[in-house]
Every structure is written in C-alpha cells, then in structure tokens.
Amino acid sequence: MYNTLLSVYVLLIAIFVCVYCHSDENLYQAKDNLPVHGPNQVRYLLYDVNPGEGFNLRRDVYMRVANLVKFLNEDEPWVLVLPPWVRLYHWRSTSLRPQNKIPWREFFDINSLALHVPVMEFEDYLKKVDTPVIDEVYYLQRYKEGWSKWEEKMDIRECVDPARYHQDENGNWRGRFFDYEEVYAKKFECMSAQAYLLTFKPFLMKNTTGQSVFLDRAETMIHGQYSEWSPEWWTARRSMVFAKHLRDDADWYRETYLDSNDKKDKTKLEVWTKMKRAHGEAKGGPYVAIHLRRNDYLHAHPKEVPSYENAVKQTIKYLKKYKIKKVYVSTDASWDDYFKFKKMFGSDYEIFKFEKQNLTVYKDGHLSIIDQWICAHARVFIGSYVSTFSFRIQEEREILGFDQETTFNRFCGDDEPKDCEQPTKWDIKY
Asked: Which residues contact 163 (CB under 8 A, 6 or more apart)?
C-alpha cells in the first residue's frame, strides 16, 4: 500500500510541480501551483556545471541529474531545481538582451520536462523557500592522488583546487550561485568523486539532511549504465522539447525559405510520452542541413575539420545523391566567411542561414536551438566531428524517426580518407 501511495504521490508532483509554465499548443499543460507539503516532506536538488562547459554539454549533464532525481523519487519526493543559464564561452554576440540569469523556459518546454521528473525554475525555488538559502553544497572534484584504475568511490576531502566558495563574517558560505548575490549556503564541503549517477542516490538519502542540496561540478557525475544505449537516457532526452516560441520561429523559416513543413515532411510533433517513430517514417524537408564548426575547432581538431572548398565538395555529393538544390548552414564562422562559403556553391544551389532579424529577441542560446530545429528537419544532415551540437541534432532526428543513413554523417577533414569513419549510430530506446 505504501509503495502504491508513494507512486501516486510522485506522479502528482511530476504533473503539478512546474511553476509559471506556458502551455504548448495543448501538448503539454501543467497547473500554476505546487502541491502543499510540510516543510520537510519535499527535498530540492540543485546543481551547476563547470563554467567553461558549453550549451550542449550542459544539456547532457541535465539528463544525468534528471535521472538521478527520477531514482530518488522511487523512495522519497525530490524536486529538481533548474540552474539559470549564465553567459557561456560561446555566447559572444551583441544581443541587446542580457545573456545572464536566463530561465529554462526561454529554451525548453518546462511542462514537457515535468512529465519526466518534478522540476522548477531557480527563481521559483527562491520564492518557495522565502529566504535565499541552500542548506548543503557539495563541490565535486578530482582525487588529489589521481588514479591508476577505474573504481567507484566518493569521499569528503579537503578542496584540491581553490573552490568558488568562501565564508562570510556570519559563517555563511558565499559563491557564484548563478550570479544571485543574495544567495548563500549553510554548509559547504568538497567531495572527491568518480562515480555513476545512481551512486549518488544513497549518499543524498543517507548522508544529507538538508531540505535543499546543491551538487556543483555535476559534470563529474557519469551516466554509467544509463547512457545513450539505455531507455532511461532516452526518456530524459525525449523530455527535452524545445520551447514553443523557438520552434515556431524555426518552423516559419522552414516554410518560408525551405519549402518545409511538418505535414509534407512527416515530422509532426506529438507528446513525447506517446510518440514512437520507426526509422524512415520522417521524410524531412527538401534541403541538406550542415553543421560546420570553425573557430576553436580549427585548433582543437585540425585534422578532422575540412577546408571550405572541401566542405562544399562533400555537401554537393549529398545534394546530387538526394537530388536536392537547397542547403541550410549552421556554423560559428563569421558572416564574412559564410558569404565566401556560400559563393563557392555557384548558381546551381541555394544556400540559407538563419539571420538575427531582431537583436532584442534572440540570444545565442535561442539561435542555437533554432539552428538545431531546422537542421533536425532536413532531408539529410551532415555534422562536425565529435561535436555535441551535432550530437543533439542527431538525437532530435532519431526521435522524429529519420532514416539513420540521412542522420549519422559528418564532414571528413582534408587529410582524412574520403570515406572517413562516420558517427556511431545509436538506436532510440523506448
């Protein structure tokens, strides 16, 4: 009886915990209030990631923490507090809107996330607890002595590197906390860890007592058996539906410039809990989408990054194979380089790139999602070597039901064989 009641209880939290959410064309709906509980009944898990990590790696870390919360809710009620987005390394545009303290609802459908685990925005957490306080912070770090073999372990240790936290005159711990200067923690410890996400469950349940617990450097947590080969990983990934206003903008662009819409392309979105597509069900719009990394990739992966001339040749091979005349380009290259690249295709093909038509609306994160959504709906996609940006597009196409031969492709570098090794194909799991 207890387990049955707990299951119902957790389900109710998942349905109603989302605060100030926006309905999504009746796909995802949630109440605007939290269930009423005693002060110690619901616990909150907060987390952050190394400041140097990019937008798409952070999405992967979200899936690790979300699945941890899912497993915690098997035994006691936890809510995942979503970390506000602060300015990232790759967010360098001159957007007129501040690229700081950005809530998740600007990028993702919060109601969709809540169908997987109970979630709430950080700003709503602060309203809920009244005082801007976090009970316990654990800074995940490496082992000072290093390691010669893999083994799971977690230990409270002295901080190896200068941590981002210090005690004030009142004994409270101050830190970055997403640039909310008023927020502080009651307790802080460094924890050396090399462990799978599920290993953190007994620690949180048995070794912590605070109502709110913060795991910093959560990228230290490893997927383990719940990687992209598992249904649990794919469940978390499928719940990460982009915000409707960004999908609407991308869909408008597809329709206007690329002769692409969901009806013709067989890519209509459904509630992800009911959506199950077989490979080849999606047709895609009549264009080839490419993700061509430049900038830091020219130094990080010089052998795998093609010249513009080579990238054009490789793209044209796909255009001819699939008898397509349009190319959509997602790239971090400068606009000058893009226009030079565009001219290399000549007059036989039409080349497109989403433009920032209104700097008061779009931030770098918005543009990243719009690019990914347009690329995800192409007839064919060509990505960049080991790029998390390309990985997220490939996952989106796997969810939509594209043939894997049109999805798991990448550019070969100039010094690589023309038939260089292509991305690993991983099947979606339901």
From this structure: 139, 141, 175, 188, 190
